[in-house]
Amino acid sequence: MYDIIPDIHGQFEKLEHVLTSLGYARRNGAWRHADPARICVFLGDFIDRGPRNGDVITLVREMLDAGTGLAVMGNHELNAIHFHTERGESLDAAAFIWSKAPKIIHAHDKGVLIRSKLGFYLAIPTEAAGKGRGGARLTPGEWERRRGMRLRFIYRRNGPSLLVAEKTRINTRGTAVASRSKTGRGQVTAPIFLLVPQVKLRKRLDLARDAERVAGAVPGLIVAKW
């Protein structure tokens, strides 16, 4: 079952109230429902107007990472990103978002195969890679720039190939960082990225089933409210 939440606009307390009323609670670093089949689908417009835009984005991101939420970008987010680019101009973001949203929903409804472009690998960060700004996933190039280390390619015939970092240590957060040990004690070669040619996106929605269920309930609701 999917809980649809649109247009939060920085109203963090109201979002928490809605999630609580739907039966969600914060556990293990994210809001979750007791029924693991329940997933929130956020329809964008997370920011503007309200006072706690950052808290809203963090909450939604935690749910996405935990697999308890899905989201599409709203025109307010796209305009904010564009405003902070070099030219600083707004654009007709609503048209862009609505042109992309059907593709995103279709991908989760059907379960699609994602292939890398031009024959390159898809780089999937491991836990040792850590996170970028705002909890975003890092690319290999960005990881090297941030950590000041080079990644080494390891080909594996019977499994995902790897990008690894040598002479590292794993800190208390499970992230690989440069080791300062002169003796080599505690140093490890840490897998930072898994390299795969393609990924199968798991089917997360069943729109036909849910539409049929809702349509079947409509006559009863009309009679009940008559």
Please provide a brief summary of the model.
This protein has 226 residues and is of the alpha+beta class.
Task: Give a description of the structure.
- There is one protein chain.
- The chain has 226 residues and is an alpha+beta fold.
- It folds into two domains: 2-112, Metallo-dependent phosphatases (Purple Acid Phosphatase, chain A, domain 2, 4-Layer Sandwich), CATH 3.60.21.10; 115-200, no CATH class.
- 34% of the residues lie in helices and 24% in strands.
- The strands form four sheets. Strands 7, 8, 9, 10 and 11 form a five-stranded antiparallel β-sheet that branches. The protein has a three-stranded parallel β-sheet with strand order 1-4-5.
- A hairpin with a 6-residue loop joins strand 8 and strand 9.
- Helix 3 packs across helix 4.
- The longest helix is centred in the middle third of the chain and has 18 residues, at 93-110.
- The chain is globular and about 75 Å long.
Explain the layout of strands and helices:
Layout: E1 2-5, H1 12-21, E2 24-27, E3 30-33, E4 39-42, H2 53-66, E5 69-71, H3 75-83, H4 93-110, E6 113-115, E7 122-125, H5 140-147, E8 152-154, E9 161-170, E10 176-178, E11 188-196, E12 198-200, H6 207-224
Parallel strand pairs: 1-4, 4-5
Antiparallel strand pairs: 2-3, 6-12, 7-11, 8-9, 9-10, 9-11
Helix pairs in contact: 3-4
